[in-house]
Design brief:
mainly alpha; 300 residues; two-stranded antiparallel ribbon; single chain; 14 helices
Length: 300
């Protein structure tokens, strides 16, 4: 990884932020943030900065740290909502601490993330993050209110954009508010399409079971219907089917491949969005990460 040093520095900075925690669940929060993670969002920040010749400054580390803290807060809250017992191959925080303390743990991480952003003294960056957080919350609320209902593909994509792409957008667009690069529209398009592809990939993994670090099929069991189920519903009225029958039918190669092609469509759109960046090792790594959203899930 061409940004190994930057990621290592980020990990140290996150630990330093957490070192000031002084509450009864400090150790659990620190352990949660220390769990093995790809640090994908900060990694993209560093890769884009280097690909665009933007110097890695304290400002960029503040943004990267904020993104990782906020991202982890959303994972904690998601696990509470989903009643998940596993996260990153370990017992989830809600299973360990209970819902009440886990909600507060997530809230603490959001607060710490916002404190990092305030350190930038840049209202544009604070505004884009708060707007993204609003849309992410709204996306989760809409998902809860539509449980058991079959969305259209368009509604599903919009939900994926709000739930996942928004934080990628905040992370990357912030770079342009601390530099003289002007391609905000293209970088926004990349973040949106990358985030949508990432969410569809995550939803597909929940069904095909290629990731043993997360509980399988809990979306269907919770009445949350993602791309494979939407495609199944085009052939079958799933409202007339039992949960067991839906699980059996949805793993048909036809629906998996249609979902796979949907991921590929958005990854290709994301890659096209960064055609303005000159070829270099950092752009190549961004492209590789993006292509792997559909390659790795299908074990290609």
């Amino acid at each position: 990884m061409p940004i190994k040093d930057e990621v290592n520095t980020l990990n140290i900075r996150i630990l330093n932020v957490l070192s000031d925690l002084n509450c009864n669940i400090s150790d659990e929060i620190k352990d949660y943030l220390s769990s093995k993670s790809k640090r994908l969002r900060p990694s993209l920040i560093f890769l884009f900065a280097k690909a665009l010749n933007i110097k890695i400054t304290d400002e960029i580390y503040y943004i990267a740290c904020a993104v990782e803290l906020i991202h982890n807060s959303t994972l904690i809250h998601d696990d509470i909502i989903d009643e998940a017992k596993i996260r990153r191959g370990k017992i989830s925080l809600n299973a360990k601490l209970g819902n009440s303390l886990s909600v507060l743990a997530g809230d603490i991480l959001i607060t710490l993330g916002l404190k990092q952003l305030i350190s930038l003294n840049n209202n544009k960056i604070i505004n884009i993050f708060t707007e993204s957080l609003y849309k992410m919350c709204k996306g989760e609320i809409n998902q809860l209110y539509t449980k058991g209902k079959i969305p259209t593909v368009e509604d599903y994509i919009k939900k994926s954009e709000n739930k996942t792409a928004e934080l990628f957008k905040s992370a990357l667009v912030s770079l342009f508010y601390i530099s003289d690069i002007n391609e905000i529209k293209k970088i926004t398009d990349f973040a949106k399409n990358f985030g949508i592809a990432f969410q569809i990939r995550d939803d597909l993994i929940n069904i095909i079971g290629s990731d043993n670090k997360k509980p399988l099929l809990n979306d269907i069991k919770s009445g949350i219907y993602t791309a494979p189920v939407i495609y199944l519903n085009e052939d079958e009225n799933i409202n007339s089917l039992s949960e067991e029958k839906i699980i059996q039918l949805v793993q048909n190669k036809k629906y998996i491949e249609k979902t796979y092609n949907l991921i590929k469509y958005y990854t290709e759109k994301a890659i096209k969005s960064i055609d303005f960046i000159q070829e270099n090792q950092y752009k190549q790594k961004i492209t590789e990460i993006t292509l792997n959203l559909y390659k790795e899930v299908m074990n290609e």
